[in-house]
Amino acid sequence: MESRIACDSTSLGAAAGVIYCAGMRPVVAVDLGGTNIRAAYYPRGTPPAVRSSRRATGAGDGPTAVLERIHAAIEDLALSAPEAEAMIIGIGAPGPLDPATGVVHHAPNLPGWHEVPLGEMLSRRWGCPVKVENDANLAALGEWGHGSGRGAHHLILLTIGTGIGGGVIVDDRLVRGWRGLGGELGHLPLVADGPRCSCGQAGHLEAIASGTAIARAYRQVGGGPADGPAITTERIAAAARAGDPRAKAVFNDAADAIGRGLSGLVHVFNPERVLLGGGVVRAGEWFTGHVERALRESLMDATFGEGLQVLPAELGDEAALLGALTLVTSDA
Q1: Do residues 142 and 323 lie in contact, with contact meaning Cβ atoms separated by under 8 Å?
Q2: Nearest to 45, CA basis, from 81, 95, 5, 105
Q3: What pTM, to 2 d.p., does this model score?
Q4: Residues 133-151: tens digit of each pLDDT
Q5: Does residue 144 lie within any of the structural domains?
Q6: Distance of alpha carbon 321 from its chain centroid, rounded?
Q7: Which H or E run includes 82?
Q8: How many domains does the chain have?
């Protein structure tokens, strides 16, 4: 993947003897999560980061307090005045949001985040350009530019963790849709009368196959006390590997649902790669192999599967940060 920003001789500032030009402005990448805020500094607009920071989000304290912690995470990078003057900020946030305006419409795991002008508020504080994007879309961009998606022109990333998210790349461009709301892959409707999703609708993929859904299904089949401590997908996966038929069944049901959902996306977008990320994927190759089998068995024609690669995502927690970097330094 090549950056499409041409470097010219326009000086944008200097720090430690480095002259910044239009194609190599320093980038601060930020990943705003429900639990942590992570920031990284890329002085030449390319990996690796030379400094990074982490702050607890404290989501329950509301948008103003969280925004102050975002500022603190950036301050922790200890940028010089010339670095701060020359930088661009790319930030990923839970959606839905509008990347054109930088407004977060609603973030379910960030209480009080309704119509928050995140981009404008960061730009006003730091006096620099700010690009805002859905965090799952940034993970797709990160894998496309720096991970398992390198060299692909058409790909789908599905991340399966507490919830389900992802992003789609078509012709080397992120699919955003009319208002920038596209890519909500966890909200594919699969079962009309299925379990209630976190968004309030019924039968979405996230409600059937996320880590939360797997834990709930395991409890429902007697895999744990209804009012006991949280049962993690790691524990359920370990039970499945040890031969627990209930654990195997709930993981297999989730894999079937994911495969069916992905087959629909393959029919729509005809990708060359499907990448699987998130904590649930760490259950092992037996799980991802089941997902791939279910995907291929659900295709309307085997031609859709010819040459299609189903691969694990590579970047883990770094995906959104590297996606923010890619957002700033390419025209994807």
Answers
A1: yes
A2: 5
A3: 0.88
A4: 999 999 999 999 999 999 9
A5: no
A6: 10
A7: helix 81-86
A8: 2
